[in-house]
Here is the input.
Amino acid sequence: GSMASNLDQSLPGMARLQEALKAKAGTLRTLGIIFIVLGSIAIIVPEIATIFATTFIGAMVLMSGLTYLWLAFHMRGAWNIVLDLLLAVLSIFAGLYLLIWTLEGAALLTIIMAAWFIATGVLKAWHAFEMRGVHGWIWGVVSGLVSILLGIIIFSGLPGSATWALGLLLGIDLLFFGWALVALHGAVKRA
Here is the structure.
C-alpha cells in the first residue's frame, strides 16, 4: 500500500532488502520448512532435543574456554592474563561438565531457565504495571504472568522437567521461527 511505498522512499535500504529477500524467497521457504520439521521433532521427542541442546551449549562453552586460554597466552599485563585464565578455567570446566554429565547439566540449565522465566516475568509485569496509563498495558502484565507461570511449572516439575523442558522450549522456538520464515516467504513473493 501507500505506507509501504512511503517506507521504501524514506528508507532506500529497505527497498534493497526487499529485493534481496525476493531473490532468495525459495531459500526462506526451504529454511522455514527445515525449522518447522526440526521444531516438530523437538516437540515430539523433547528428551532428545534437551540432550542435543545441552551438548551443543556445552561444546560452545568449552570452545569459548579454549579461546580464553589461547587469548591468555597472547595478552599483555598480569591482570589481563589472570582474568583470561580465570575465564578459561571456568568456561572449560562448565563446558566439560555439560558434555560429560549431560543429564545433570540439563537439570542445571533447566533450573537456570526456570529462574530466568520467573525473574523476567516479574520484571515484565512490573514494567507493564508502571505503564498502566498506556492503552494495552495489561498485555505486558499477562506476558509477565505467563513467564512466571512457566517458571513455576518448570520448577515444580523438577527433577523430571529437566528431561523435557529445554527440548520442548527449543522445539517451540524452532517451530515458530520456521513459520515466521514461511510467512516472510509469502509476503516477499506478494510484494
Residues 102-130 form the longest helix (29 residues).
